[in-house]
Write a structure and sequence with these properties.
The chain is mainly alpha-helical and 441 residues long. 67% of the residues lie in helices and 6% in strands.
Length: 441
């Protein structure tokens, strides 16, 4: 294994990409500790230390930025929410759908509109946070200068947090373009991983205080290992459809007659469904925390993590986005047409429409399993918290993101190594490490 890491240093471009990604992630982590002007970070930290549920979930996704009242307090969620909106619009609004079909130029326009949407959502959310900060009192006001409460403080908060989200969005795009891995996913990944030491420390304190038994901790450790193994196994799982290519004569040469396969990922959508689902739920639930009204409080309690309403909506959204994102990423008709164009066919299935229908049927069946798998993994934290009093947001979306992003990043690094005739991490005779993109055609 050490020799494989040594090979990374022998490829200047790969080494530069990895160092570039690490440098920008370090910038992001430093920015988490830059507090929004006019806020008492210690008071907010004390409040967040006693808060759980939705605030614990938001704090996890922002890598602790919310508890720091950082300029990065909104995290990357506004960008994800904006991406969801425009991906849905490509289906329901013909004009946006036509832009997507225009190729690279159309995608650039959609990306630009997504950025504008991110800024709008950031302004709305940061304004709500400003109003909320003015109302929080733990011994004393969260706002440092009570006389500054008003539009001056609100405007400063909106500008700071909106600029922070825009900067995170830029960091993610730079990592994707010039670094290694998906920038947005790596930013969320780094935020989650940064909370692990604090979670372990809290768990130790719970055991010392008698709030959690060593046996319960052992059970949690076993479950963690099992879940990581299940996630790794399913994320690498494929349904391989056999494909046969007929012989073709090109000039004086004869091509074809070879057998291959069409790999369909069991979980084609990857970690996108739980991320999208979390973002959809957190947005209205977070806004509800800034409004003090009996009906709003009922709505807020219903969307609190752990409640049956929250779990039901969360599972429903995960299943919806699993199918939606799979449909966006993989078009059976295009695959069937390309196979027919190059003389390929599935044994026993007629080329063209029948092939597309067969691929769609197989893809639907495995997506059902993938959606159930995602839902089960993401609901696991609620069960652990309620049954054995796990003091941190274990597993679920967080563990899925950590394992999934790790597999994708390692897969990209291995691709660079193999492309330049170096052994991958598994060696020349070992299996290829497949990321989520491996199954897409």
């Amino acid at each position: 294994m050490a020799s494989h890491f040594t090979n990374i240093a022998r490829i200047p471009e790969l080494k530069r990409r990895i160092l570039f990604s690490l440098a920008l992630l370090a910038v992001y982590r430093i920015g988490v500790f830059v507090t929004t002007p006019g806020v008492n970070r210690n008071i907010m930290g004390e409040f967040m230390g006693n808060a759980g549920g939705l605030f614990g979930l938001v704090n996890m996704f922002t890598g602790g930025a919310m508890s720091q009242v950082s300029v990065f307090a909104l995290g990357i969620m506004p960008y994800i929410s904006s991406s969801i909106i425009f991906q849905l619009l490509t289906v329901v609004w013909p004009w946006i759908g036509q832009l997507k079909k225009e190729g690279e130029a159309g995608r650039r326009k959609i990306t630009q509109y997504t950025r504008y949407g991110t800024v709008v959502l950031s302004i709305i959310q940061s304004f709500g946070i400003a109003l909320w900060l003015e109302s929080i009192k733990v011994g004393e006001l969260t706002v440092v200068d009570p006389d500054s409460v008003g539009w001056g403080f609100r405007l400063t908060t909106v500008i700071s947090m909106t600029a922070g989200t825009a900067f995170i969005m830029w960091l993610g795009e730079q990592i994707t373009e010039k670094g290694i891995g998906n920038g947005i996913s790596l930013i969320i990944f780094s935020g989650i991983v940064s909370r692990i030491p604090a979670s372990i420390s809290t768990t130790v304190d719970f055991i010392k205080g008698g709030q959690m038994t060593p046996l319960a901790m052992l059970i949690v450790a076993i479950v963690v290992v099992v879940v990581i193994g299940v996630i790794t196994f399913v994320e690498r799982g494929q349904r391989r459809i056999p494909v046969q290519y007929a012989k073709r004569v090109v000039g004086r040469k004869v091509y074809g007659g070879q057998s291959t396969h069409l790999p369909l990922k069991v979980n084609t959508a990857g970690v996108i469904p739980p991320i999208f689902a979390s973002s959809i739920i957190m947005f209205p639930a977070t806004m509800a925390n800034f409004i003090d009204h009996p009906w709003v409080n009922i709505f807020k309690d219903a969307l609190s993590p752990g409640s049956w309403v929250y779990n039901l909506i969360y599972v429903g959204l995960i299943i919806f986005f699993a199918f939606f994102y799979t449909a966006v990423q993989f078009d059976p008709m295009d695959v069937a047409e390309n196979m027919k164009k190059y003389g390929g066919y599935i044994p026993g299935i007629r080329p063209g429409k029948k092939t597309a229908e067969y691929i769609d049927t197989v893809l639907t069946r495995i997506t059902v399993f993938g959606a159930i798998y995602l839902s089960a993994v993401c609901i696991l934290p609620s069960v652990l918290q309620q049954q054995i009093n796990v003091p941190f947001y274990f597993g679920g979306t967080a563990l899925l993101i950590v394992v999934g992003v790790s597999l994708d990043t390692v897969s990209q690094i291995e691709s660079h190594l193999i492309t330049r005739h170096y052994d991958g991490f598994t060696g020349p005779k070992g299996p290829r490490i497949r990321g989520r993109s491996s199954g897409r055609s």
